[in-house]
Every structure is written in C-alpha cells, then in structure tokens.
Amino acid sequence: MSAAPWWRDAVVYQVYVRSFADGDGDGIGDLAGITSRLDHLEALGVDAIWLTPCYPSPQLDHGYDVADYFGIDPAYGDLAAFDRLVAEARRRSIRVLMDVVPNHCSSEHPWFRAALASPPGSPERARFFFRDGRGSDGELPPNNWRSVFGGSTWTRVTEADGSPGQWYLHTFSPWQPDLDWSCPDVVAMFRSMLTFWFDRGVDGFRVDAVAVVGKAAELPDAPPVPEGTAENDVWAHNPYTVFWPTAHDHWRDWRRLIDEYEAAHPGRELVTVSEAYTPDRPDLLLQYVGPDQFHQSFCFDLMLAPWRVDTLRVTIEPVAATLTAAGAPLTWTLNNHDTQRGVTRYGRADATEMSSWTKNNLVYTGAPVDLEVGTRRARAAITLAAALPGSLYLFQGEELGLPEVLDLPASARQDPIFFRTEGRETGRDGCRVPLPWSTDAATSFGFSSASVGADAPAAAPWMPQPDDWGAYSVAAQQDDPGSVLSMYRSLLRARRSLLDPDAPLEWPELGAHAGPHPELLVLRRGTVTVVVNVGAVDLAVAEVLPALVGESLLVSSLAGHHDPTVVPADTCCWFGPPR
Ligand code: BGC
C-alpha cells in the first residue's frame, strides 16, 4: 500500500463561493448553499474542495481583500455555517481547503485604518510599505512599479492633519495594501490564522499570490520592459518583487508550523498549495514546492498552452521531469477564477496559433470562438490532465462545460482589472458567473434557493446569467451519458480505478509513424497509454500506433458513437496495453 499523503493524487474542486450556490435567496453564493450542494461534489468524485476567500471583506476583489482573517463575511454566513459545511463535507469524505491571502489585506482591515491614522515612521505604518514620494513636494510615486490590475502600484494618502502625505504600495488594487513581511506583527498574525482554521477542521490552504510577497528592501525602480509588453504583463517583469527570494523564509516557517501541528494532532494530514505563475521556469516552480516549503505548487503552464502537440508537450514534460527528479509532487489545473474558461480558450480561432500563447492568464485575445470545437478540446484536455501523475484541481463549472461569458455589459462588470484599465482589459468576471443547477429561470437556474426567504422570490444573481444557462445545468446533464458532466464523472472514476498513482510518466517513441502525424501526443502511465489527437481529422489507431495500444478504455468525445479503432479529431483516448 502506498504511504503517500491523500493530497498527492487528489482531485480538488475550487469553489468560487460567491457563484456556487445561494442558500438564502439574496443572489449571492454562500456557505449554506455549498453545504446544500455537496451531493453534486460527492457524485462527481472529488477528494476536497478549496473555498475562495470567505472572510469579512468589502468584496472589492471578491474576498481577495481581507478585512478580518479570523471570521466569515456575513454575506456568506458565519462561523457556525462554516463548521456545518466542514462537518457535512467530512461526512462525505470531502476535505476542505481555504484560501489565505498573505501579500495584502483590505484597506478596511483595522491595521490599515490604524496606519492611516498614525504618523509616518509609526509602528502602525511599519506593517505596510509607506514611503515618501519623489519630486519637490513628494507628489510623485516612490518608484515606477506597475500594479497587476493596471496603473501605478502606489497611492498617496492624506495625513490626519489633511495634508498630502506618504504613499503606500499595492501590488494589486489600492484597496489591497501590501503587507511588509519584515514586520514581526505580520508574521505572527498569519501564524495564528493558520492555526485558528486548522483547529476548526480545515485541511489546508491555497496560498494566494506567493510570487510577489518578497520585495527588495530599497524598492528600486524596475528596469524597462521589452517593447510590446501588454499592459497587464508589465508587473510580471519587475525583478524587485516577482520571485524575490526573501519570502521563502516565511514559507519555511509555515511548513515548520504545519509539521508541528500534524505531529501534535495525529491523523491530520494538511496541505498547502502555492499560486505562483512561473512561465517556462520549472526550476523556479521547484523553489516553492518540497519538504520544507509548500506541499504543492500549481503547474500552470499547461493551462495556458495553445492546442498543439508541441506546446502541450513542452508545458508538461520539463516541469514533470524537473519536479519528479527532485521528489516534488505535480499539481495540474486547466481552469481557475482568474483565467478565461477552457471551453472558450480552446474554441478561439487562434487556439492553435503560437501567437495566442500569452503565458499570462490575465491577457486574453479577442479572437472569435467556436464553442463546439472548444468543448471537444476542453473534454480532451481534461482527459489528458487527469492521466498525468499528481493532483488535479478543477474549477467549478468546468464539469458542466461552461463557456466564458464574453458579452457581460460594462454595467455588470465588477473586476477591478476592468476599472483600473478603463475597460481596455475585460477582466475575469466572465468565468465567475453563478452556476446553473436547474432549467428554472425563476430561481436563477437553481443558483438561488427559492424556498428560503418564505414567499419572497429569490433576488437576481449578483452577476447576470446568460439566457441559455439552463442547458448547461446539472439537471439538464446528469442523465445524459454524452454530457460533459457524465464524462467528468466517469473520467474521475477511471482515473481512480485504472491509473496506478505510482506509475511514472513516459513518452513512448512513435517511430516512423510520428512523422506524418504531428498532431498526435502520446504518453504512458503504467499500463495505460494516452493518445491526444489535436488535429481536425480522425486517425485510425492501427495505422498510426500499431504496436502501442490495445483495448480502448476511455474516450473524451461523445460516448456511444465511438469506433474504438479510431482516435477522433480533438479527442483524447486512453488505451490498455497492446494485445
Ligand atoms: C488571485 C486573484 C486575486 C489576486 C489578488 C490572485 O492571484 O487568484 O483572484 O485578484 O491574487 O489577491
């Protein structure tokens, strides 16, 4: 029996709390809503859920602006509702991860309010990056850094006496002041936060934006960026914060805390997963994951790869080789709340072009989309990802094949990226539209419970749903063997029953047949051979892979119509060993 921890090959489902299910009819998703829908997650076959931040927050970045790390936002429930969710999830053997945001808090956090009310040089300001401005009157920002969400990374404050004052640093929006991790208060607060939630039964944390937590002490100007760099990508070229090494001391400290917690609480197996985008740099990714830092770190490159054999392979093979050689686990994902949904990404007219490879999930292209093609490819992509060694993180709604909602009116948009770039970047709202559970438009397609709130109808959802949302609903798909939902369910079952978690990832030689078929990606896990046809033409298995494969085990395109001697276009198949 393998002694590996549960998370090594777990399937974790990301719940965007605001959009999953609304238990009290106010149009906003909440913890009671999640609890009421756990059956769906159990039937899907996930091992754990990761909740996006549900702490008290002004919600200016939907919870990634935390005003209190030790509570629950009233819009989402309270600590009792949280405890109920954890207990009900546990009853179904589903573990619960939270989201910790260490780089910044909300400008409504009591610490930041105290900093604003205190003078320059005070201990209250030492928890943040307050600096004097440049220019004769301090009217210019302290350096040239650009924010992830557009604009300068600095905002000037008005001092308590009404005079124009210092500036504070915010890597994201002005409502998210960066915390200075060289301040012991900051270190101590997060240590007690982790323990507080572990004591409530939480099994781990997804750790937000770890790549920008470190900063060069003098905060020097960033060098010029390469010509043509997209506005949303400028920040990523700042060498004085992105991957700045000092943060690793804190991640080591967290790991010690967790190891000690586990030692003191037999039976608890905790996990942290770091969010660090490290395009083409498995060596950098490796710095975050391992026995003395995070347990896992997302391998994001595959998510952003164009639909081509060369880019798929180059976003899997080097990272898998580097991490595996170091004994570090692999953590795959194809979707999250910051990234255009896969169905849309893969359906874009430029989805097979190298030019679409932005390597930055916040930079989208505006190419026209064919959702039928995108859905086929998204089905194939998850069938590929599910076959890789390591864990797999899903984002809510991908199991329904939801597309990105591209035509949200400006008046409905809420993402700070949209506002900070004055609409030049549409932002991430389109992947955060509330989920459809039923075909009943009167309850926002089952998103809002109509029964709670007595006779009053449920409020409109916080973000409008498209008119055709019901066709994607769980109710519409669950009894249809050809639906995306049915495919996800059987894929997760097959992953468990057919794949040996210890089987290494191998790349069999295609020999003479590789030449004429550059649209085939072939890999092997133990006895299972995985074949992806990224081309537009069906290929006869016997012709292209004579000695490689045997019985057809699984196919990502519509079940029921499958000829097992063919790998259809834009499809991923799993095969048994050659007979
Ligand atoms: C989160 C985003 C969030 C940002 C600031 C990210 O990496 O995933 O949703 O806006 O950090 O916290």
UniProtKB/TrEMBL annotation:
Alphabetized GO MF terms: alpha-amylase activity
This protein's name: Unannotated protein
One of the GO BP terms on file: oligosaccharide catabolic process
Domain Glycosyl hydrolase family 13 catalytic residue range list: 14-432
Protein's organism: freshwater metagenome
Classification via InterPro entries: GH, GH13_cat_dom, O16G_dom_2
Pfam families (alphabetical): Alpha-amylase
